[in-house]
Design a protein that fits this description.
alpha+beta, Metallo-beta-lactamase, Chain A, 7-stranded mixed sheet, about 25% helix, about 30% strand
Length: about 325
């Protein structure tokens, strides 16, 4: 059974949003398996709901600036009822001929997050249930890759057992880009203490360069900007290629406006350069782009649209 947790930015769905819209999101979030040559890819969704208004996320996103794009953003990427962007929090389960791999691990449970408040001390275990519904148990995972170490990308790295944080995946190696790890370690935030330090203490952390390759099927690309050591994660099987972009792009709005950067980006200018480089490199070719926060089905191809870009969902 697939489990989804529906909470908007300010609380539980109710009133105008209604049951029909929840059912629509459920239908859109069914986690089908994609085949990339010999590699299978499956989204593991924690939740997918309308969250921020565009202006809360991008300084430039005034109502007038967003208006020309509403027609092609609604209803998939922009909720017509609330005006909020629909942004899933999700992982990618990647199964190669040799390894069972998770890319990013969402928000998690019982975490001490200050922002947004809905993520603080969550008790909903939908993500772990959805992973098991995909036929994978925590002990089956060989590697965990994190594009970066923000709260919604590393939360299920650990879980609380008998009052202490332990690795959720007891047999896995957790691969962290060294620059990202060091930047997060220097902050010594609760994200690091709860989601990363227990991995280090369990001797399951592997610190690597930002262009590290596990083998000829999975490797990292440095994509600094959103965070100090952000990486994209590439997959290759034969002639088939995919790239998980992490948070170098958050919303389809940034396809039309790649110069808009998220309020939480570490380096706004670098994030723009990185995003434009990535979009230009993969526009109009066969690269399958796995996004972190585009609405379901979240996966597709970058194509040209006027002076910007668009996304063909698969």
């Amino acid at each position: 059974m697939i489990v989804l947790h529906f909470v908007n930015h300010y609380g539980t769905f109710q009133g105008a949003i209604g049951l029909l819209y929840i059912m629509e999101l459920l239908e859109r979030s069914v986690m089908s398996v994609l085949q990339l040559g010999d590699i299978s890819i499956q989204r593991i969704v924690e939740h997918e709901v309308p969250v921020y208004h565009p202006a809360e996320f991008f300084d430039e996103a005034t109502a007038d600036a967003v208006e020309p794009y509403r027609e092609w953003l609604e209803p998939k990427a922009l909720c017509p009822r609330t005006g909020r962007m629909i942004m899933p929090v999700q992982s990618y389960l990647v199964q190669t001929r040799y390894h069972c791999i998770l890319i990013d691990t969402c928000v998690g449970c019982q975490k001490s997050y200050a922002e947004p408040p809905e993520w603080h001390q969550r008790s909903n275990g939908a993500w772990l249930s959805n992973l098991e519904a995909a036929g994978v148990h925590p002990e089956d995972v060989d590697y965990v890759f994190c594009t970066h170490l923000h709260s919604d990308h590393c939360g299920w790295n650990t879980r609380l057992v008998d009052g202490r944080w332990v690795p959720t995946f007891p047999k896995a190696k957790y691969v962290f880009a060294r620059d990202e790890f060091q930047a997060t370690e220097s902050e010594n935030s609760l994200i690091f203490i709860e989601n990363v330090l227990p991995i280090l203490e369990a001797k399951q952390a592997v610190l690597v360069d930002s262009d590290y390759a596990l083998d000829d099927e999975i490797w990292l690309e440095p994509t600094v900007g959103h965070s100090a050591g952000h990486v994209a994660i590439h997959l290759q099987s034969g002639r088939h290629h995919a790239a998980m972009c992490g948070d170098l792009i958050h919303s389809p709005l940034q396809l039309a406006e790649p110069g808009w950067s998220c309020y939480s980006d570490y380096d706004l200018a670098a994030s723009v350069r990185t995003r434009k480089t990535f979009l230009n490199a993969h526009c109009g070719n066969d690269t399958l782009v796995l996004t972190a926060h585009f609405p379901s089905p979240s996966v597709g191809h970058i194509v040209p649209r006027g002076d910007g870009f668009d996304f063909l969902y698969v």
